[in-house]
Specification:
By secondary structure, the chain is an all-alpha fold. It has a single domain (2-272), classed as MetI-like (MetI-like fold). The protein is 72% helix and 0% strand. It has twelve helices and no strands. It is elongated and about 75 Å long.
Length: 274
């Protein structure tokens, strides 16, 4: 029933296809690259798309197609680890905040409110300024920025679930708080968390590109979609392919993740079921 409802929505299928293509490109990147993405050849500098260089070359003569393909691994890595970090932190904070309530809820949610008050990009830049540039620190920054979203979603679910009859039955039978939280409450919180994870994955890729564009991402010469865009911004008039193709890659992946996330919401949200 789950897959039948999922494939009924054509836009969801389109999103799934785009995500699958991106994942395959990241996994198979060593075999899909046609040139060494790090090799410079100034004789081939700023060549337009051709049979030898599918998407042209950059200002150093490097193959743009190979750099975009290899950049997909950076995007997937950042998206996966940053969302995983925010999911783990947010779920734990939301569980304890919603279940225990009182001063525990007040402290946790006031901290989450303080994080949310900062604009996303400025907060990420601030964290990067403290931790320093680099791919690991970029993942941590994005993960921290999106933690409040998971915490709030999980907390709202816990507030309704903890009053259910089966939770009272678990208390009566002698289950301790940790057992109730992780065995009875947490499994019923997963649908909105899965939907949010899918959507935030796309945002994480977008913010990775933005921070890499500002020089706070993967260190050179490691290619990422944001750094490829940044390197090509000075040549937009004479070499538009340097910014067009990585921009299209980012747009397609984020679009695919959002379409798939909307489809999951339609399937997993009981209020939307026929």
């Amino acid at each position: 029933m789950f897959f039948k409802r999922l494939i009924k929505n054509k836009l969801t299928v389109v999103g799934a296809v785009l995500i699958t293509l991106m994942a395959l490109m990241a996994i198979l990147s060593p075999w899909l690259t046609t040139h060494d993405p790090y090799k410079m050849d100034f004789k081939q500098r700023l060549n337009p798309p051709s049979q030898d260089h599918f998407l042209g070359t950059d200002e150093y003569g490097r193959d743009v197609y190979s750099r975009i393909v290899l950049g997909s691994t950076v995007a997937m890595r950042v998206g996966f680890f940053s969302v995983s970090l925010s999911l783990i932190l947010g779920v734990l904070l939301g569980l304890f905040s919603g279940y225990y309530g009182g001063w525990t809820d007040s402290i946790i949610m006031r901290i989450m409110d303080a994080v949310v008050t900062f604009p996303t990009l400025l907060l990420a830049i601030g964290i990067m300024a403290v931790l320093g540039p680099g791919l690991i620190n970029l993942m941590i920054a994005i993960g921290v920025v999106y933690t409040p979203r998971f915490a709030r979603v999980v907390r709202s679910s816990v507030l309704s679930i903890r009053e259910k009859e089966y939770i009272e039955a678990a208390r009566v039978t002698g289950c301790n708080n940790f057992s109730i939280i992780f065995q009875h409450i947490l499994p019923n919180c997963w649908p909105p968390v899965i939907i949010l994870s899918t959507i935030n994955f796309g945002y994480a890729i977008l913010w990775e590109a933005a921070l890499s564009y500002l020089g706070l991402g993967a260190p050179p010469p490691t290619p990422s979609w944001g750094s490829v865009l940044s390197e090509g911004k000075d040549f937009m008039v004479i070499a538009p392919w340097l910014t067009t193709f990585p921009g299209i890659a980012i747009a397609f992946v984020v679009l695919g993740l959002n379409l798939f996330g909307d489809g999951l919401r339609d399937v997993l949200d009981p209020r939307l079921k026929e």
